[in-house]
Design goal:
Helix content: 40-55%
Oligomer: single chain
Radius of gyration: 20 Å
Number of helices: 6
Largest sheet: 3 strands, mixed
Strand order of the largest sheet: 4-3-5
Strand content: 15-25%
């Protein structure tokens, strides 16, 4: 986790809690720290495990409510990938593209500068764009190799 990013997201959370007269609970800060120490996409179960490893237990309700707050503050983005909910820390992160295997569910961020530029150049009517995420679905090379091996074995039997 980059310390300067964490300091900034903590300040965003502090300001929101102060302005809205909410309590600054240790749970909220522990979840924030865990979110920004996670690499890539993560589930709430993985986040809960991360908190447990840091000897900080948080109820499922607290975790859900805190993540909802972080989404509202645009500190976290929620992805629905293949029927599974995954989260990603998003502060100071550019718009990006994902490739998702429809067989194993593996998610990889990809470089697509031409697509990113085309979407940046797109004029939207009566809408302020904050960012975007693009999903490209297909079959990864590992799953494709397994499919090919299975087809080869079936042909050999006959």
């Amino acid at each position: 986790m980059k310390n300067d990013i964490f300091v900034t997201v903590r300040q965003i959370l502090d300001s929101y809690l102060e302005v809205n007269n909410h309590r600054k609970t240790p749970e909220r800060y522990a979840v924030l720290k865990a979110v920004y120490s996670m690499k890539g996409h993560f589930s709430l179960k993985e986040l809960s495990h991360q908190l447990e490893e840091n000897n900080f237990l948080v109820s499922r309700a607290t975790l859900y409510n805190t993540m909802k707050l972080f989404q509202e503050l645009r500190l976290v983005i929620c992805h629905r990938l293949q029927g599974i909910t995954k989260y990603e820390a998003c502060y100071n992160k550019d718009s990006h593209c994902h490739q998702i295997c429809t067989i194993c569910g593996k998610v990889v961020e990809i470089e697509a500068p031409n697509i990113l530029q085309a979407l940046e150049d797109t004029k939207l009517k009566r809408f302020r764009k904050d960012g975007f995420v693009l999903y490209v679905y297909g079959v990864c090379s590992t799953c494709q190799a397994k499919i090919t091996r299975k087809k080869t074995l079936v042909k050999r039997k006959y």
